[in-house]
Design brief:
This protein is of the alpha+beta class and about 230 residues long. The chain is built from three helices and eleven strands, in the order αβββαββββββββα. The protein is about 20% helix and about 25% strand. The strands form three sheets. A seven-stranded mixed sheet has the order 1-3-2-10-8-9-11, with helices on one face. Strands 4-5 form a two-stranded antiparallel ribbon. Strands 6-7 form a two-stranded antiparallel sheet. β4 and β5 form a beta hairpin. It is globular, with a radius of gyration of 20 Å. The N and C termini lie far apart (about 80 Å). The relative contact order is 0.17.
Length: about 230
């Protein structure tokens, strides 16, 4: 009887340990104040929605930007039908399919079918706490988040001349710190805008062959569009 009780107790402890090991990450509003969690910032810019700032706790070691964004929002970002998750076209429902985006005098609606144009896309950024935003050179599915660091998304609308703009909320623990309009707030070679004919790499989320195929298709499509 004692042996049976010991076996049952051991099984319960093992189950409890497994449940704890696979506990889903949790997100709360505001900046993280510890060195183990990750702050996710989503700045809608001209889409005129409130900036989302959430602290994600409990991410597994090696967690990606995609996992952090999903944990922060409670839902995955949308990818295009053409490229799948290779290109993020909509975050938290924006830009909505019925939203008119003015690009150089013409109107565009994001239907998430083909690759978003360089004039209206979600740019991906990262930063260390207290540092500057850096334009990501890897996609969200293959860039590991840094504990205590920041993950940023910013919607770039009609900014081909100056390149994508970083989130206006600075990567600090103070909600009042923001980048002034036209301010810098970014650094590093990764923050440079994509040159003519190139896809904004921070938006690419594909991995391996699928990601490479999506990227190659995007480059060809983009060059045709630019031409």
């Amino acid at each position: 009887m004692r042996r049976l009780a010991a076996v049952l107790l051991g099984g319960l402890l093992a189950l409890a340990g497994t449940a704890g090991a696979h506990a889903a990450p949790a997100a709360t509003d505001g900046h993280c104040t510890d060195g183990a969690s990750v702050t996710v910032v989503v700045d809608f810019q001209e889409l005129d929605e409130d900036t989302i700032i959430r602290c994600v706790r409990g991410l597994a070691d090696g967690a990606t930007g995609h996992e952090a964004l999903v944990a922060a929002l409670g839902e995955a970002p949308s990818g295009t039908i053409k490229d799948g998750p290779g290109f993020v076209c909509r975050i938290a429902g924006h830009p909505a399919a019925d939203t008119d985006l003015v690009l150089g005098g013409s109107t565009y609606r994001e239907d998430c079918v083909v690759t978003p144009p360089r004039e209206a896309f979600w740019s991906y950024w990262h930063a260390s706490a207290g540092g500057d935003w850096t334009y990501a050179s890897f996609g969200i599915a293959n860039r590991e988040v840094q504990p205590g660091g920041y993950e940023g998304w910013s919607f770039s609308l009609d900014t081909t001349g100056s390149g994508p703009v970083p989130p206006r909320s600075l990567p600090t623990a103070s909600d009042g710190d923001t980048v002034e309009p036209g301010g810098d707030g970014r650094t590093g070679s990764g923050s440079e805008p994509a040159s003519d004919g190139e896809v904004p790499m921070g938006t690419v989320a594909g991995v391996g062959f699928v990601g490479a195929a999506a990227l190659a298709g995007g480059v060809v499509w983009w060059r045709r569009r630019e031409g």
